[in-house]
């Protein structure tokens, strides 16, 4: 529509231009006619003059109008041609695009038709295949039904024949078969369980040995060096008299204030401080050092210095406990428990420093817990606190394990930690995997060579008592206590003790040791029975 309107508008402009030219010619003709009329009225000269001038004007106007009309005609024709060419070009481009889209649509339609045709052909093939398979399936199903019917008939006949032959019904035969299968299954299951248990025991023992050995190898330890006396060195023997004081009043004041026995003998430049409590010995040693350095030694000054030194030791106990807790990476410990840990520095068990023992147990527990996939921080915590019952602020008759468990419960420790503390000497029942770890690591730390010291006389006496227990049974020929009293090896007479009695003898000796003697760790009893046949060739 836009192209047609443009062409119509161009044609209208041409027609308008032609009308204007015609109007101009008509005006010129009218002007000539008017001139002729005027010429009749006026005189001939004027009329001829006017007519001539009118003719000339009309001629000029006509020429000019013709020229203008021709020029305008040419211009309009050119414009119309250009517009026509533009419109034609645009129309052809539109036609081409439309034809292109139509061809593309036709191509897509043809493709879809071909695809639909191929899919329809496939569908027909599938339908035909499905019908064939369905027909085959129906045939096979009918065949199987016939076979199943035949099999059922044969089975019934065979069951009837078996019932006649065996004089048993099908239910009775089934019951007997089930019973025989159950018995066989029970036997196989028991054999399998026994094999599995033996393999599990062997594997568990191997893994336990591996864990314990790895744990021990990864911990560096020290040997016991503490004892019940301390040596206080002096610059000269003249100071001894000042320490003793007039009629011994100074030394009595020191002993009364500290609870430590002070031994002044012929040892040059030294006096000995003797007390089972290492805290008292340390207070006495520091107090003597301050008194000797200051030079003022009298009962009033002694009491003042001992009091200050006691407060100093209390602060040192707190600092020692904090350092031990920080070194082991334990957080959130109650201040009272930290003080108990600090007091362990001044306590020993069989010559083994209690703080060193507890730190060692904590490290062993952390390593072993890591090896077993448990919480190493909780294990370290329980290992450090397992012997806090040995350093109570007040005396009590409770065993140290139970006392330590009560202290831990009182100060908000977790139930696993409390149970591990109370159960490491079997005073209470173990309720978590942490408890046996603490018990094992405590035994490792206490039983290793060099960990603890005993008085020589009591140690030798314990070994003699072990051998005497063995000699109290009939048939014993020799008995030796070996491995620091941890094993008793017994030789018996083969003609008096049989193999069965040897095993019984080993049990009886171990029970008597367990009930009558006190010993650290455990004692292994080995009974050896040897038969010899001797002949002499002459």
List the SSEs and their pairings.
Layout: H1 2-41, H2 44-166, H3 170-217, E1 229-233, H4 238-244, H5 249-258, E2 261-263, E3 270-274, H6 278-294, H7 299-328, H8 335-343, E4 348-349, E5 352-353, H9 354-371, H10 376-385, H11 400-410, H12 415-423, H13 434-447, H14 456-471, E6 476-482, E7 487-492, H15 499-516, E8 524-529
Parallel strand pairs: 7-8
Antiparallel strand pairs: 1-3, 2-3, 4-5, 6-7
The whole-angstrom Rg is 63 Å
Can you give the mean pLDDT?
79
The largest sheet has its strands arranged as 1-3-2
Distance between the terminal alpha carbons, to the nearest Å? 151 Å
**Uncertain ranges:** 220-226
Percent of residues in β-strands: 5-15%
Helical fraction equals: over 70%
Q: Shape, please? A: elongated
Largest sheet: 3 strands, antiparallel
Counted beta strands: 8
Order of helices and strands: HHHEHHEEHHHEEHHHHHHEEHE
Q: Count helical runs.
A: 15
Structural classification: mainly alpha
Description of the structure:
With 538 residues, the chain is mainly α. Helix content is 71%, strand content 7%. The protein contains 15 helices and 8 strands. A 3-stranded antiparallel sheet has the order 1-3-2, covered by helices on one side. A 3-stranded mixed sheet has the order 6-7-8, covered by helices on one side. A hairpin with a 2-residue loop joins strand 4 (348-349) and strand 5. The N and C termini lie far apart (151 Å).
């Amino acid at each position: 529509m836009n192209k047609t309107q443009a062409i119509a508008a161009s044609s209208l402009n041409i027609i308008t231009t032609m009308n204007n030219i015609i109007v101009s010619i008509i005006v010129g003709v009218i002007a000539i006619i008017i001139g002729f009329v005027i010429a009749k009225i006026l005189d001939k000269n004027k009329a001829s003059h006017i007519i001539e001038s009118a003719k000339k004007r009309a001629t000029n106007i006509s020429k000019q109008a013709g020229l203008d009309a021709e020029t305008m005609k040419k211009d309009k024709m050119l414009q119309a041609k250009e517009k026509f060419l533009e419109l034609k070009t645009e129309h052809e481009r539109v036609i081409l695009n439309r034809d292109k889209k139509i061809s593309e649509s036709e191509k897509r339609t043809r493709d879809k038709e071909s695809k639909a045709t191929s899919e329809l052909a496939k569908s027909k093939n599938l339908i035909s295949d499905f019908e064939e398979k369905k027909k085959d399936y129906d045939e096979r199903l009918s065949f199987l039904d016939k076979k199943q019917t035949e099999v059922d008939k044969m089975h019934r006949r065979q069951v009837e024949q078996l019932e006649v032959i065996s004089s048993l019904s099908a239910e009775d035969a089934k019951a007997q078969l089930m019973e025989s299968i159950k018995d066989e299954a029970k036997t196989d299951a028991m054999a399998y369980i026994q094999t599995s248990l033996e393999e599990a025991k062997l594997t568990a023992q191997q893994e336990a040995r591996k864990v314990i050995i790895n744990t021990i190898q990864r911990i560096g330890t020290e040997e016991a060096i503490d004892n019940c006396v301390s040596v206080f060195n002096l610059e000269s023997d003249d100071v001894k008299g000042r320490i003793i004081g007039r009629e011994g009043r100074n030394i009595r004041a020191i002993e009364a204030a500290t609870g430590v026995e002070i031994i002044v003998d012929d040892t040059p430049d030294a006096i000995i401080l003797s007390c089972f409590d290492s805290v008292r010995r340390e207070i006495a040693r520091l107090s003597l050092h301050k008194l000797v350095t200051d030079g003022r030694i009298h009962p009033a000054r002694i009491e003042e210095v001992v009091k200050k030194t006691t407060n100093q030791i209390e602060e040192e106990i707190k600092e020692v406990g904090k350092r031990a807790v920080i070194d082991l990476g334990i957080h959130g410990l109650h201040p009272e428990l930290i003080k108990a840990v600090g007091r362990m520095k001044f306590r020993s068990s069989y010559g083994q420093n209690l703080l060193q023992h507890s730190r060692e147990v904590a490290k062993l527990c952390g390593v072993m817990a890591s090896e077993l996939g448990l919480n190493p921080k909780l294990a370290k915590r329980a290992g450090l606190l397992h012997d806090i019952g040995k350093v109570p602020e007040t005396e009590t008759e409770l065993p140290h394990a139970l006392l330590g468990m009560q202290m831990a419960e009182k100060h908000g420790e977790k139930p696993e930690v409390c149970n591990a503390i109370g159960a490491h000497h079997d005073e209470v029942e173990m309720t978590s995997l942490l408890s046996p770890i603490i018990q094992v690591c405590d035994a490792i730390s206490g039983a290793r060579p060099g960990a603890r010291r005993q008085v020589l006389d009591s140690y030798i006496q314990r070994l003699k008592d072990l051998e005497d227990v063995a000699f109290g049974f009939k048939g014993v020929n020799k008995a030796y206590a070996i491995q620091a009293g941890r094993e008793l090896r017994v030789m018996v007479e083969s003609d008096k003790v049989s193999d069965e009695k040897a095993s019984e003898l080993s049990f009886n000796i171990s029970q008597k040791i367990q009930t009558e003697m006190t010993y650290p760790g455990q004692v292994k009893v080995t009974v050896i029975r040897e038969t010899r046949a001797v002949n002499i060739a002459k």
